[in-house]
Amino acid sequence: MRLPVRAVETIFLSMVVLVAAVVAVPAQTFSTDPLNRAERSRIIAPGELQALDRIQGRRDFQRQQQQYREQDRPRVEPQRLKIPRLQQGCQQRLTRNRLVTTCF
Questions:
Q1: What pTM was computed for the model?
Q2: What is the Cα 51 distance to its own chain's centre?
Q3: What 3 state SS string does the chain have?
Q4: Which distant-in-sequence residues (6+ apart) come within 8 Å of 41 by Cβ?
Q5: Within 13 Å and on the Cβ side, how many CA atoms surround 96?
Q6: How far is the C-alpha of 14 from the C-alpha of 21, rounded, in Å?
């Protein structure tokens, strides 16, 4: 019994996609996992770790203070000035069935 060409292509493509997904998932998970404190302490010397933690703490504090300043900053919208405009002296009169306007 022979399978149609379309069925063979479909099976082959689905197998290729499945293999690609199986290979890509562990690599992606490994590359995006951040180091936790225990892993960092094995890689970085303890003195450096404390310095990095202090630097990160200062950055977090500054970021938080910036957010607080943005929340406290008043939102002032520019006011539009109302400027009086001189209107032309126009007269309207009814002539026959039309309204005729004449301006000076």
A1: 0.33
A2: 32
A3: CCCCHHHHHHHHHHHHHHHHHHHHHHHHHHHHCCCCHHHHHHHCCHHHHHHHHHHHHHHHHHHHHHHHHHHHCCCCCCCCCCCCCCCCCEEEEEECCEEEEEEC
A4: 49
A5: 1
A6: 11
Instruction: Count CB-CB contacts under 10 A for residue 5.
Output: 8
Q: Which two tokens stand for residue 13?
A: 């493509």
Per-residue pLDDT of the chain (104 residues; tens, 9 = 90+): 565 667 778 887 788 787 777 666 555 555 555 666 667 666 767 778 888 889 999 999 999 999 999 888 887 778 888 877 766 677 778 888 888 877 76
C-alpha–C-alpha distance, residues 31 and 34, integer Å: 8
Task: Measure CA of the first residue to CA of the last residue in the chain; give whole Å.
Answer: 98
What would the two tokens of residue 32 be? Answer: 């995006």
